[in-house]
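FORM 12-B: Structure-to-Sequence Request
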């Protein structure tokens, strides 16, 4: 199995972590009854940690489709290489680091880590576009 597929599977696992982190903090704020209910009611504004975890989750959900297309695409067209594998690992590692940085409110470093993750994806996408 190409390493890019393994990276993608780990990315899916990481998505669960992002989701469960946000839901755990929402449940802590709004209660178990909210979590087990239909979630139809208007809620008070999220507290700082809940808001950060939710925004981090949304950010991951915005960029994960790019990773899916890039990592599956590189395998489908048989252009995997050490560079595409490295790019995938860079993306995944940066996304692992991003969540705690965002929840902790660390601004500049968080943005640098995000940019690093995008550089990793660019390393995977490049051969799809130009090789």
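FORM 12-B RESPONSE
SEQUENCE OUT:
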């Amino acid at each position: 199995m190409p390493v890019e597929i393994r990276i993608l599977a780990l990315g899916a696992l990481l998505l669960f972590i992002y989701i469960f982190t946000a839901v755990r903090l929402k449940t802590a704020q709004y209660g178990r009854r909210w979590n087990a209910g239909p979630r139809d009611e208007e809620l008070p504004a999220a507290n700082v940690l809940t808001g950060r975890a939710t925004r981090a989750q949304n950010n991951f959900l915005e960029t994960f489709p790019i990773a899916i297309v890039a990592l599956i695409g590189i395998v489908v067209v048989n252009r995997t290489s050490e560079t595409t594998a490295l790019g995938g690992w860079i993306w995944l590692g940066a996304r692992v680091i991003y969540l705690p940085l965002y929840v902790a409110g660390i601004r500049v470093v968080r943005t640098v880590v995000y940019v690093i993750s995008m550089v990793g994806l660019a390393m995977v996408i490049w051969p799809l576009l130009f090789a």
